[in-house]
Amino acid sequence: MRTYVRMIFHSEGASPQDVVQVMRGLGFEEAMGMHDFVYKWPSRATIDDVLRLITDMHGRMKGLTVNYEVTTIA
């Protein structure tokens, strides 16, 4: 199972490097292609697991002025 995140940066927001550090701290890895980050679940996750991860990410993104799109694929 994987959760993917695509970021949209703003020139007045945090630097991409700052965002990378936040995402790494959450357990995401950088990705190339359609998505910028991927979280590789160690086992099958529930919707509650995904919501906890994304809620944590949302809290850490506050003030960074980035938009994001999340996709989870089982």
What does this structure look like?
The structure is a single chain. This protein has 74 residues and is of the alpha+beta class. The chain is 34% helix and 30% strand. The protein contains two helices and four strands, in the order βαββαβ. It has helices at residues 16-25, 47-61; strands at 2-9, 29-30, 37-40, 66-73. The longest helix has 15 residues, at 47-61.
Series of H and E elements: EHEEHE
Approximate helicity band: 25-40%
CATH topology: Alpha-Beta Plaits
Alpha plus pi helix count: 2
Radius of gyration: 12 Å
**Order of strands across the main sheet:** 2-3-1-4
Major β-sheet annotation: 4 strands, antiparallel
| Low-confidence sequence ranges | none
SS-based structural class? alpha+beta
Number of E strands: 4
Query: Which CATH class is shown?
Result: Alpha Beta
CATH architecture: 2-Layer Sandwich
Separation, N- and C-terminal Cα atoms: 4 Å
Q: What's the pLDDT, averaged over the residues? A: 97
How much strand?
25-35%
Query: How many separate domains?
Result: 1
Tertiary shape: globular
